[in-house]
């Protein structure tokens, strides 16, 4: 094994896949394995399984699967080199310079991405140095101290200060040999039109580094200390910064979210920093934009309870409603924190303190249904009889979406008491609405085009899968199958896997699903191996089972061969080539004789 492969194998054996994936997915033990919501597709019930024994993961819904390296590559959009480096850092293993050079030669785009990340890291340190050095940072530090930010938060969120200079950053980058064109593309520096010289975009501003889920700086936000416009200046989206994929503060909040199984969703980075300073360390922000599917999935994977704490203006309420709709389902508890009008979390904490924010805002958050009722109430004039009836219908319609009968009953009683309507009539109307919805859903199902169904595989396909699953676990079985079947698997992906397995064992490798996956470069084959590795098989190997499976595969292979030759024979006969037709008939008879040796039930 080459040095590089030795180090990769050391990383794989040093880390527990449950711990690594547990940073992204809320996992619960079920038998030998752990299950959770799949991070690679939207689902309401868990179909994502992680095996600590095999150090593999597989989703029975979308088919995603693999080992530690493939998981990091898929979840973070990394190259193999980046995934290896991230996992090596976690395992405290030095990859060495030879690995980095080799990876850069294989994929120049990885090297460009790394240079960009390194450039932003350099600037994060530089801006922070300027802020915390009295000679340069006193204007910025004075502003932050007046706003009540303490030294711990300034350090933890790596806040910085861009001095009022046109070339401080440009000069540093040139001195360090950083590619200026790359930094221009991500909006940190710009080029003057009249002399094509670079200059700093951020001047006299507090700098807020924006981090990806791993805590790497991928963008910056700058708040002016003067009257410059705009008040907040952000670097644009780039190859390393996609706003909709990032939750600000997630890398710092992750442990707290896991511990409490609760997340607080805010709107902006200042709110997050202030909330963490107040002790609400499970806070993250959706970067001032509408919550995206990717952000919602990251939250629901990690937390059972999610509290939305947006501004209390009309836009904030609408955004809260949309976010709640995206987050609900799969038993998640969604709550809405009721902010006083005209205040955001930053304002509130500065005015009333962190303890009141925790008790009177976060602690007093409403259930989603209570929030919906208040939201629907705002749209109706309840002094008007017609609007009042429409409001009641709106609420009943929302109640049909609740899974728990106790919860539905609670809100029906509230409606009954408030509007002096009998509980029985409300229950009856709510049930009628529910049945109408169910009928519509059934009608959609009947009229919708036939989707991919959970088909029952034919016997020969199941036989091939069981053989491969056993072969992955045993070199002896693989050798026996190779001697008997060779490459006679019918399904293309099974043929390819068998060939790779034969070569894998021929190189002296042990039966190890994770290592085998590591040797495969094709993601489709990696997913298939993870699927086969998760197949439930008895510990004891039944030799008769292996023989039966091989007979099934041979029988199907020969039956297919007979069918193909029959077609050829008919065409030869139709064209008048009776000599070829006779030769094919002889071959068919011989194959049928061979087929007689493999007596199993036909598929």
TrEMBL record:
Family membership noted in the UniProt record: Belongs to the DnaG primase family.
Co-factor requirement: Zn(2+)
Origin organism lineage: Bacteria, Bacillati, Bacillota, Bacilli, Bacillales
Record note on domains: Contains an N-terminal zinc-binding domain, a central core domain that contains the primase activity, and a C-terminal DnaB-binding domain.
Protein name, UniProt field: DNA primase
Function: RNA polymerase that catalyzes the synthesis of short RNA molecules used as primers for DNA polymerase during DNA replication.
Known EC number: 2.7.7.101
Domain of life: Bacteria
HAMAP family in the record: DNA_primase_DnaG (MF_00974)
Basic and acidic residues: bias regions: 563-574
Chain ranges of the Toprim domain: 261-342
The entry's keywords: DNA replication, DNA-binding, DNA-directed RNA polymerase, Magnesium, Metal-binding, Nucleotidyltransferase, Primosome, Transcription, Transferase, Zinc, Zinc-finger
CDD domains referenced in this protein's UniProt entry, alphabetically: TOPRIM_DnaG_primases (cd03364)
Region (Disordered): 557-579
Note on how the cofactor is bound: Binds 1 zinc ion per monomer.
UniProt xrefs under InterPro entries: DNA_heli_DnaB-like_N_sf, DNA_helicase_N/primase_C, DNA_primase_core_N_sf, DNA_primase_DnaB-bd, DNA_primase_DnaG, DNA_primase_Znf_CHC2, DnaG_bac, DNAG_N
Quaternary structure, from the entry: Monomer. Interacts with DnaB.
SMART domains named in the record: TOPRIM, ZnF_CHCC
Catalytic activity: ssDNA + n NTP = ssDNA/pppN(pN)n-1 hybrid + (n-1) diphosphate
Zinc finger (CHC2-type): 38-62
Organism in which the protein naturally occurs: Sporolactobacillus kofuensis
Gene3D superfamilies given in the database record: 3.40.1360.10, 6.10.140.360, DNA primase, catalytic core, N-terminal domain (3.90.980.10), DNAb Helicase, Chain A (1.10.860.10), Zinc finger, CHC2-type domain (3.90.580.10)
